[in-house]
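--- STAGE predict ---
source: upstream dedup step, 1 unique chain passed
mode: sequence only
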Amino acid sequence: MPHLEKLEALSFMLGEWVVTGVVHLSPVRGEARVRAILDGAWIEYTEVIDGYSDLCLYGVGEDGDLVVHHFTSEGIADVHAVLPREGGGFHWVPSGLGPVVRLVPDEEGFRCEVGRFEAGALDVRLVFRRP
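--- STAGE serialize ---
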C-alpha cells in the first residue's frame, strides 16, 4: 500500500505522551496517545489537555497527499492538507485565515506550535515527552 509510506513521516508521533506547554499565555498539562489504526491506513491522535479534547485522523486523501481530519470537544470539525517542513516534521495548511499548526520532532519527543508565524504570533506551544 503506497499510502503507508506517506504515513511513515508521522511515525515520530506514535506512542503515549505527557504534554506540557502554554495555550494563549496560560500553562497547560495533559496527555496524548498516537497510534496506527485500520491496518496502518490511518494514524489516530487523541489528546486531553486541561479538559479540552482533540481527535485527529491522519491519512492519505483521494489525491494521494497527506491530510488530517481534526475534531474538537468544542464541536469543531475540519480537514487540512499536511505538508513536510524543511528540517523535519510537518505542518497543516490552514483553511482561510486560520493559524498554521507545526509538529516538529526533537531529541526527546516532539513539539506542537500553533500560530500566525508570519506575524510573529504563537498562540500554542506544546511539548510532548514520554511518561
